[in-house]
Write a structure and sequence with these properties.
- The structure is a homotetramer of 96-residue chains.
- Chain A has one domain: Alpha-Beta Plaits.
- Chain A has 2 helices and 4 strands; from the N terminus they run βαββαβ.
- In chain A, helix 1 runs antiparallel to helix 2.
- The longest helix of chain A is centred in the C-terminal third of the chain and has 19 residues.
- Chain A starts with 7 loop residues before the first strand and ends in a 10-residue tail after the last strand.
- Chains in contact: A-B, A-C, A-D, B-C, B-D, C-D.
- Strand 4 of chain B pairs antiparallel with strand 4 of chain C, so a sheet runs across the interface.
Amino acid sequence: MSDISLMPATVSLQVLPWVPMEDLYPVVDEVLAYIASVKDIKYEVGAFETVMEGDFSVLMDIVREAVRIAWAACGQEVFAVVKIMLKPEGIGCSIA
Amino acid sequence: MSDISLMPATVSLQVLPWVPMEDLYPVVDEVLAYIASVKDIKYEVGAFETVMEGDFSVLMDIVREAVRIAWAACGQEVFAVVKIMLKPEGIGCSIA
Amino acid sequence: MSDISLMPATVSLQVLPWVPMEDLYPVVDEVLAYIASVKDIKYEVGAFETVMEGDFSVLMDIVREAVRIAWAACGQEVFAVVKIMLKPEGIGCSIA
Amino acid sequence: MSDISLMPATVSLQVLPWVPMEDLYPVVDEVLAYIASVKDIKYEVGAFETVMEGDFSVLMDIVREAVRIAWAACGQEVFAVVKIMLKPEGIGCSIA
């Protein structure tokens, strides 16, 4: 997949650990702390989803690790919604 | 549905009019201008989606009208993704 | 909105009542029973979402009522993901 | 990430290559042909999304490759929506 490894993309991630609503935020906070620790990506936290910009492959690795972290933090099912915009020309949905 | 008409909710809307990427933003801007014109809702524009907080029924009417506006502005297919968090206790995903 | 009231659309709905996983299906089953009871729409139940075809306005009313039913059945927060494809020419994502 | 590599999951993928609606299906068909060629996953094609069941890491690799294939087939932007249900106990949203 070397031809896509440097493809610009915008990827959003919403992680919903399957725990009571009052226990949700500590788990989500661990995921956000992880995303904040990643170098070389631009990101923006919203009410439902965190949007990231960077290389497609890097962002997909982050999504995978973020879901793993949510699971490790709660030990329950984790539901997630991911949106991907692959931008070969670099234009399209972007963080303001 | 009177029992749900004053139910607090957070609703996000991503509207993707089926037009070339360079024609996308004028259509999206019409949708955003409409949302900005609505009274009594709190909203936040993100890279992919606009998140709104208010009464569930009001927000669903806004989603419907926003999709209609996108269609009227482009005359093409319109794809949209909507996320809903119904919050009977008022807690849950919220605009910061 | 009379100009859009007979617009063909495909709309999917995923309803996730915020209850333990073992309590999820009775709530989802009430939602599905409601959808099954609606006249004049075509629908298909999938692992995550139920896809419906019909008039856009009718489908949006069904989404609203389905979320209300999920809330009434569980008394908790309800998360939902809705996808909309407005098809002015009648072509686009369709039930097989 | 060895601790999550055999985690059961259900993952859905909707791929929307940014091409005129009449050019959409040849691209989507290439993606579906790829998914059909993958060994050892269970999958179901719906109107909007294809749902797959298997190991979480394997499914995430499939998502990445499927998006790459859509891009290679159309040369344009590709939008995708991915839903993930991580099921440590093996229960939750499943293909019927």
